From TrEMBL:
Pfam families tied to this protein: LytTR, Response_reg
The organism of origin for this protein: Acidiferrobacter thiooxydans
UniProt-recorded name of the protein: DNA-binding response regulator
Domain of life of the native organism: Bacteria
Hydrolase keyword on record: no
GO function terms (MF aspect): phosphorelay response regulator activity; transcription cis-regulatory region binding
GO biological process: regulation of DNA-templated transcription
Cellular component annotations (GO), alphabetically ordered: cytosol; protein-DNA complex
Alphabetized CDD domains for the sequence: REC_LytTR_AlgR-like
Amino acid sequence: MKVLIVDDEKLARDRLREMVGEIGEHTVVGEAMNGSEAIAQTERLNPDVLLMDIRMPGMDGLEAAMHLMGLDTPPGVIFTTAYDQHALDAFEVNAVDYLLKPIRKDRLAKALSKAGKLTLQQLQDLNQAQESPVVRTHLSVHLRGNIRLVPVQDVLYFLADNKYVTVRTATEEHLIEDSLVNLEREFGESFLRIHRNALVATPHISGIEKDTSGTWHVTLKGLDKRLAVSRRHAAAVRRWARR
């Protein structure tokens, strides 16, 4: 199998590379230092399995695994971690196995063997087994088979339309297949429901105003567009504005 090693510590990456070489049968095709690099390297190198740390600066391993689930041919993920309490979370995001540091060569060999026996269908079944409790820092946008990562902090609003949701930043619009209910559940502390089809990022709200017909609108920083507030949500939006 082709193996991608993901860890922010060089000594850990070197040790894993050495052990994979000693085990034989598999080839280390690349390395990455965090979750974002892991996604980019996965798209470039198409590894069969990732040996990925959980705790890393920037995007951690759990979130990276969530984004990788969306690929047509997702790799297997073997988490490497010094934190045993993360084991349950690991298995909820397509983990073939998890290895507790310091990693033993025989245990690594067993995990790689297990990954090699999984078919694509079994990996996809693992992906769909259950929702992950991880709160994402980025959203996955799929463009021509590739993953584009959009930082959640850059999102101005989510706007639902049938089965798709528009993700709007200051400069771009993207479509994702998700529901506002799920997005509100995950990011509700930073977003305000203003309409049954709209969530607005509170850090980007510049104010609220009423037009001549009595309809309230939300105005956004750096965007020449107003979003209508439904009657049902007007009171909650005004309460938020008075805080």
